[in-house]
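Lab notes, practical 5.
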Amino acid sequence: MSTWSGRSSPWNWKTRIGGNLYDAVIIGAGPAGLAAAYAARQVGLDYVVVERQCIVHTIYQFPTGLIFYSTPELISLGDVPMIVQGLKPTREEALNYYLKFVESQGLKVNTYEEVTRISGQDGDFEIESVSQREGDRHYRTRKVILATGAFDSANRIGVPGEELPKVFHYFKEGHPYFDRDVLVVGGKSSAVETALTLYRAGARVTMSYRRGAFRGIKYWVLPDLENRIAEGSITAIMDSTLKEIRQTEVVLDVSGSKRVIPNDFVFCMTGHGPDVPFLSGTGVVVLPEDNIPVHDPDTFESNVPGIYIIGVITAGNVSSDIFIENSRLHGPKVVEHILAQDGVK
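Output from the prediction step:
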């Protein structure tokens, strides 16, 4: 069974088939999904979490050594405190916390299992999935809670050469890029922090941004960037767009003029969004202008009765409106709504 555990597993359960129904199947094991699982367990609902990657995969993809801007109590779950060495948790401390949370609370989580189809109706949904270990699996459930996040689907630029192995849409650490010519595409906080980290690792960094000025940058980060640009440590090419990526160079359009610069690696930090085809396949309507799934902001139930949307995907294209701090509250509200429908107060 593709269930995460420590040295010994504190639970023993089976995938439900035939006439046996779960109360809820939660798809996604990020903080929002785990908070929903904890809330379901607290009130005795029969649930399972299905996750196509590892637990809190989005946080795993954060840069090595990243320090959260939130304090521990704002990203902890349930009544389990997060203990950290400094004032704010690091990526590594957060990863350890969420794994221990799953283990200590005995949450039922299937990792490396991808949901491929959701069918049925409120009260009796069928979920088909493929597990890395067991292959095809099936679940039946009264309710479905989608907590799939919006970090796994990168916004591609769509230029020639974007498929080259030198091109990345995620940033992990700067070490491999010492003494290399690196282009960072984008001008928001993730791009700026990527550029600064690469510079400190000894890379020759150029930033390409389609606007004339940086905006929406964390206030404590912007002065650092401005100082690096002023001293010539980082080159910022404003009002520019990436047109082509070649093996040893890139082509930019700068205010209507073509510019070719040497290049070894490209980081396209242009944002991420929800898996729209998957959401649409469930019957959930996704608004085309911002990829926000239609849902009730109070109950988080989508336009499909019995299917709920929680976590960062409620904001569509990853936005500054939804963080762990507020998305961890979504799951408990969904559980309250399920109980209310069942006549439980």
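Observations recorded by the TA: The longest helix spans residues 91-105. DSSP finds nine helices and 17 strands in the chain.
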